[in-house]
Amino acid sequence: VQEIAIDITKSLKIDRMQLEKIKKEDYFKKIVCEVEFIGILVFRNGIVKVNTRRSLDVDEFRGFAIADKYTPAIFINGNDAPSAQLFTLLHEIAHIWIGEGGVSNLAYPFENRIESHCNKIAAEVLMPTRSFEELWDNELTKDSNISSLSNFFKTSEISVVIKAHQLNLVSNEDVCKVREDLEQHLRREKSAKKGKGGGNFYNTLPWRNSQFLTNTIVKDALNQNTLLQEAGRLLHAKPNAIVNRLSERV
After folding, report:
1. Could you check whether the bond before residue 109 is cis, i.e. omega within 30 degrees of 0?
2. Tens digit of pLDDT for each residue in 140-198?
């Protein structure tokens, strides 16, 4: 776990000295950019293609990894809590690093051996054991520690409590409580989103289709190596949008 975590940290240029200066959402985007820079495609979507009536259920999966030799890819369920998506991203990266694809959820501590291994790697990348133990304050309550470390490491409270459980700092009941709180939060968010718009379609499209893949297809279409109709089909967008909207982003 330590060896793989160190290699991932170096490859993605994760600098913990910068943590206090960066927002959670920016931290996620930064890591996604680094992941795609080294050749792993990252897709994030909360629906099937562009069908708003076919929502992806967080209870079924939070993400998956395809450990292909030539085009490794990661998919993140966009309906999950933003801070939880960061842990899922690193979990799926761990899958690719060990060459084993997989689908992730929150089945801790009842996962199989590979899922458990990838969870430990992801936790070590985001929350190195030495730093985690140094920051854990026994004079504070468990809830205060979990909240404080979640803010510091820019990850979710469920990720923090799982790491704390692995280090015997909290009980299994604490893990179940935080998981239930997260699930209730997601249910409230899902209910609040009903009837609301999904934001600017073309701003979110590169995240849905992988920013690297989107830019590659759009550039190829603009250079007339790929037909606009084919580019639109690949990106789930209208052909004229390739020239009028997406070309501005490459």
Report:
1. yes
2. 999 999 999 999 998 888 889 989 998 999 998 998 888 888 778 777 776 766 656 55
pLDDT of res. 108: 56
- Summarised one tens digit per residue, pLDDT across range 191-233 is 766 656 556 778 888 889 999 999 999 999 999 999 999 999 9
The Cα–Cα gap between 79 and 92 comes to 17
Residue 54 carries which DSSP code? E
Determine the 3-state secondary structure of 22 from DSSP: coil
Please work out, in degrees rounded to the nearest 5, the angle formed at the alpha carbon of residue 171 by the alpha carbons of 167 and 174. 115
- Residue whose token pair is 């990894």: 65
Ordered DSSP codes for 120-140? HHHHHHHS-HHHHHHH--TTS
- Three-state DSSP state, 203: helix
Q: Are 148 and 135 in contact (CB under 8 A)?
A: yes
- SS3 state at 198: coil
Find tokens 């369920």 and name the residue.
Answer: 77
Q: How far apart are CA 35 and CA 49, in angstroms?
A: 22
State the residue for tokens 């689908």: 103
Q: Work out the average pLDDT over 27-52.
A: 91
Q: What is the CA radius of gyration of the chain?
A: 19
Predicted local distance difference test score (pLDDT) of residue 167? 92
The answer to whether the CB of 202 falls within 8 A of the CB of 171 is no
Element spanning 43, H or E: strand 41-45
